[in-house]
């Protein structure tokens, strides 16, 4: 990930290793160490509520990172992300229920199913663009969720599938704290995969396709292949997130994968900021925490018990309003705000970058 | 016979809703995914006017229809106008966000319970026996007639009406249209208003026929494949598309599995996107140039 902020003078790269390294300067190293300490210390300080919230953020982050790869970088719109999460969750649920498969089998299986679905979701993208593609993913979402619901009713799990706590080497994973570390590692792995994909040939091809498909093709990029690859990788990641979700909640049901969930993921990458991995993470945090903030705000008003019944409606309305505000007033999302704050301090006391030799 | 009646009624519902998608898309190339919610708002407006004008149901309906036209215009003026010239995706996502906002607001204003505007207006809904052994409820029959009337009115309006011609011109080439003195914002606002109006009439009639809850928006979403199968920029296509979707849905409920009813429209949509993405009567999108 090439850093946008200018580095202090006196820092020179002298070999390729330094150029490839993710952590380059002493300040960055200190920052990463501080972050790691914070993340490792968090579960021992936080209450169960905040621990659960953090776990939800990690799950959402994997999903939003995968959607960011697809939409923010490769430029392929998907409104069916919840369908892929559902597919992963159902794969894990069904496998562990029907053949008692352990977690080290169900997670790759979920990734595989996600990948196959990715090809199916991606095939229309070879012919369709923009709007029509979004619509086809929306249609596929309904099909996937229907199949999941059909399985539930046909097998008699009308309320949902219970998933047993996974075992790794005789050690059963349960409790929020154990899950915190597993989901943290999963989210970090997802982030590393994304960073490395994006600074390699694949990432460059995706960005070219997003900028202009015809030009990308003229430059010798195999557009069809890279589009499908974007769908496959993104879908596999989303499916794994779904599988982890089913284990974490130890329960799978169609209700959890409503169309609203798809929209929430799209909202994450819009609110966070298109075309930025940091944006995907910020968006995941924002969208996950948002309903809790609304709830806390509403319940702190006088006569709180009157509002309990309409809480979900307030949530919906506020969520829609926030999405509209970001789309109209801040299309660059939270990352855009962050960059503006950053450049304010970097340029101080000046207001604008010098017109000539603009640095990017 | 009953089967044919069911197909006709469902197709009429889808057709009446689908023309809203077509109107907005044809004029401004924006896919309005909040159409189902706007239709629901129209139906709820009838509930409010029914209590505001007790004893005069026709006035209540007329006021509700006029209000729904205004809602559509306001949506354009305050929201979608800001998205003209933006990326198509941003505009579509704005409508998605609007849909979520409206869903929340509807529950906040009118509560989530099932309500019956028909009773509030003092209407009864007797079934009419048709020759051949089929039965149709009064409001379903009115809906079929209304669909026919609205479609003929729209055809005439777009073909001969002054503003209809302007709408077609703006849809074909906005730049040229603007240079010939057509007020694009007015045309777009009119398209949104008409779209919401027709959708709301559908919503009101469905609500009069079978009651009103917050889940009505789903019907609106299921009508969307009808618009796309027919061709998103063809009004006649929407009619045919609605018939295809309606027939497929009723037949699959009858002969395969009632649970399928929610996915059948989307299965037809996928099939159509694979074979002919621009729909039966739609115009093919231009190739992009560098």
Describe the 3D structure.
The complex is a heterodimer of chains A (360) and B (290). By secondary structure, chain A is mainly alpha-helical. Chain A has helices spanning 16-20, 26-45, 48-73, 81-98, 103-122, 130-155, 176-198, 201-211, 213-218, 223-249, 259-272, 277-299, 304-307, 311-329, 333-347; strands spanning 161-162, 167-168, 171-172, 251-252. In chain A, the strands form two sheets. Chain A has a two-stranded antiparallel ribbon. Chain A has a two-stranded antiparallel ribbon with strand order 2-3. In chain A, helix 12 (277-299) packs antiparallel against helix 14. The model of chain A has no long low-confidence stretch (mean pLDDT 88). With 290 residues, chain B is mainly alpha-helical. Chain B has helices at 2-28, 35-52, 57-78, 88-110, 117-121, 138-160, 162-172, 174-179, 184-210, 217-230, 235-255, 264-275; strands at 127-129, 135-137. In chain B, strands 1-2 form a two-stranded antiparallel ribbon. The longest helix of chain B is centred in the first third of the chain and has 27 residues, at 2-28. Chain B starts with a helix and ends in a 15-residue tail after the last helix. The chains are: A mainly alpha (360), B mainly alpha (290). The A-B interface holds A 77, 79, 124, 127-132, 134-136, 138-140, 142-143, 146, 149-150, 153, 212-215, 218, 260, 263, 266-267, 270, 310, 312-321, 323-324, 327-328, 331 and B 31, 79, 82-83, 86, 88-90, 92-94, 96-105, 107-108, 112, 224-225, 228, 259-260, 262-263, 266-267, 269-270, 273-274, 277, 285, 288-290.
Which terms summarize this structure?
heterodimer, A: 360 residues, mainly alpha, two-stranded antiparallel sheet, 15 helices, 4 strands, 71% helix, B: 290 residues, 72% helix, 2% strand
